Amino acid sequence: SGAIVAAIVVVVIIVVAGVLILLKMYNRRTRMRRELEPKSPKSPAPPTLDPNSNSSQQPATVTFSPADVHVETR
């Protein structure tokens, strides 16, 4: 019974190691492909603001999600 459990653990470790190696190879290949691609001659320009619009007209809003609020319970 103990030998079966040990064999299963060894197989799981080998499978996880194989998946990690495959992911590392895929990441390396995609990074090389990305770096070897020709760069686009035109970078995306940031959106321009209308000079007639006043930025103070837009109200500043702050929203809190429930994850931001920490309540201490006793």
TrEMBL record:
The organism sits in which domain of life? Eukaryota
Q: Which GO terms describe its biological process?
A: peripheral nervous system myelin formation; regulation of myelination
Going by the UniProt record, its keywords in alphabetical order are:
Membrane, Transmembrane, Transmembrane helix
MF (Gene Ontology): structural constituent of myelin sheath
Q: Where are the bilayer-spanning segments?
A: 6-26
Q: Where is this region: Disordered?
A: 31-74
Mind telling me which GO cellular component terms the entry cites?
paranode region of axon; plasma membrane; Schmidt-Lanterman incisure
Q: Where is the composition biased (Polar residues)?
A: 50-64
InterPro entries per record: NCMAP
PANTHER family in the record, alphabetically?
Answer: NONCOMPACT MYELIN-ASSOCIATED PROTEIN
Q: What is this protein called?
A: Noncompact myelin-associated protein
Originating species: Jaculus jaculus
